[in-house]
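lol forgot to send this yesterday, sorry. struct tokens for the thing we talked abt
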């Protein structure tokens, strides 16, 4: 799930994921050249991270479970990639 709070030309974007079986979750997106960013874990088992991104933009992203299993956000649109896979699409 993705929650966006816009404030002028910046948006606070909180990504939350509740995978059934994962010890770690990284988020990767075009805003950081697809580098792994570890998500924090809540007591209830949800993983989350908040990013500050420029408003009025579109971004592609995905989640990497346990270092290698790529998944899309189930609440976001998806877009095909040149690698015969899909990325989540975030429109701010």
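and heres what i got for the seq, position by position
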């Amino acid at each position: 799930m993705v929650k966006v709070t816009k404030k002028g030309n910046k948006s606070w974007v909180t990504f939350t994921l509740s995978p059934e079986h994962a010890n770690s979750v990284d988020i990767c997106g075009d805003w950081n050249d697809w580098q792994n960013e570890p998500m924090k874990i809540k007591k209830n088992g949800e993983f989350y991270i908040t990013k500050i991104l420029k408003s009025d933009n579109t971004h592609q992203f995905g989640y990497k479970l346990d270092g290698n299993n790529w998944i899309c956000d189930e609440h976001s649109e998806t877009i095909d990639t040149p690698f015969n896979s899909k990325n989540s699409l975030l429109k701010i």
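The mean pLDDT is 94. anyway ping me if u want another try
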